[in-house]
User: Fold this.
Amino acid sequence: MRDHEHVRTSDFDYDLPPELIAQAPAEPRDASRLLRVEIPTGTLTHYVFRELPSILRPGDLLVINDTRVMAARLHGVRTDTGGRVEALLVRETAPGTWLTLFRPAKVATPGRTFLFETTAGPVEARAVSREGGNVELAFDRAIDPATAGEVPLPPYIQHYGGPAERYQTVYSREARSAAAPTAGLHFTPALMHRLQQEGVAFASVTLDVGPGTFVPVTVDDPRDHVMHAEHITVPAAAAHAIQAAKADGRRVIAVGTTVVRSLEHVARERGAIEPYEGWTSLKILPGDPFLAIDAMITNFHLPKSTLLMLVAAFAGRELILRAYREAVERDYRFYSFGDAMLLER
Assistant:
């Protein structure tokens, strides 16, 4: 039963002391904390992430998002005045042409040229089109998004000076995202090996995380919030592994909200998990069904965000807000570099 008409953005607010916003990741990765939420009973239990093999069951299927964050932030200047500009690569729209988030956008009038510093040297770019802060830039040579500039961190991480690789999952592959699928940051190769020894399997899908993941919900009714489209790929191997798990009665556990949205989009559009490539702007709110997943691993999300609404849809708003209150009381670390939750139905 859908009950969107009862949902308001203000229903998903909570108090978070600023000092609990993690400015650096746990070391090692699996030393982060893990709050287990057993939804049927409302039980909250505290673990360290490396204890995950003692919680999961043999036969569980962990579905991960193998996207990699682009080195997408480019610093440059106007070629006519020398004024400083910045462009964040979002996606390539044609060979050598990229949609970017541009600052200050007002100077990127079509036809104006800019000179950007990249790891391969200076590159000139011409503004092709502009819509708000979205500017298409045509570069005078190919840009490698894996190495071009700086890996962008979320705006609430202001004091991190460590290696950019810590904002990548250990299983990341092609650089296509503007942000990391952060629930996966807690895994190490050794932990994944231990899980496999315990009979837990892995499958990989890809959702290219867009900068829209940081867009706050500013409308009172979250149904009116516009989600940015993101590209998803569910390979045949992952689809078949999920189908087999479902047929056997084994649990499908999403590692992160990006995996949740990928699988739930395909399940809604196709009626089952099948090989798929396309775009999603799926928004999941309380009252929406979950057709693909049985549990999820996720980090702690911003107040009034679509991600908090998604986990509340899965576990129940009151239980999630109680879990968040307990996490605050116990000094859990929040957001991208923070601790994790395991939500089990």
Q: What stands out?
A: The longest strand covers residues 84-94. The mean pLDDT is 96. The chain has two domains: 4-69+159-344, 73-139.
